[in-house]
Give the backbone structure.
Amino acid sequence: MGQSTGVSNRIENISTSNKRLRELMLEKAEPKNRDEREIAGYRCVLDLIHESHGGIPDPFNDGNGRMSRLLTLLLMYRSGYDVGKYVSIEKEIERTKETYYEALAVSSQGWREGKSDYVPFVTYMLGIIDACCRELANRFPLVGAPADNEEAIRAFFDRLIGSATKREIMDANPGMSQRTLERILSKLQQEGMIEKIGAARSTAYRRCRGATKREKHR
């Protein structure tokens, strides 16, 4: 989440130091200026989309780039594509930032006259999503690489953006039994590495905001 927030704001030339970004992401600091307020606001909306996308009403009036990227993520979730939970779409856009603005400029020509062509930008975004899906596919073989099941689940939460249901965790760790997963989840909760949110069918798990990667395991 911190990576997505940082890069999406950098695309718009809004930034802060890595130290301040971590503090803002963990809610350990109050924003000091406009850039930090916008970064903190983006984090809140990103968190909302990752965890409550199903219950968000059709919302937003702001038409800037960051809002469009948040809306893209929201629409992908609603269509059943959750790649943005595991791979930062914003990071891939930042990597191809020049092409992003070129595609945007081309698709904006003639917009006021109702003659704009959305194909260049749609093609660009499909390429971004394809790249993210490929990266996720490349990660899956690594999920089973750790020596035991517990290491696999720790590695899963190290990479996770937002939250994941028990089914999503099992899908990412094929071959692991539900009983084994439940035992590991219970242990990680006791350690303070992860926390359970929601209830019944809405139950999901996420990294505790105050926990750093592998902090409890060292």
Observations:
- Confidence is low (pLDDT under 50) at residues 142-147.
- The chain has two domains: 2-141, 148-207.
- The first strand starts at residue 163 and ends at 164.
- The chain has ten helices and three strands.
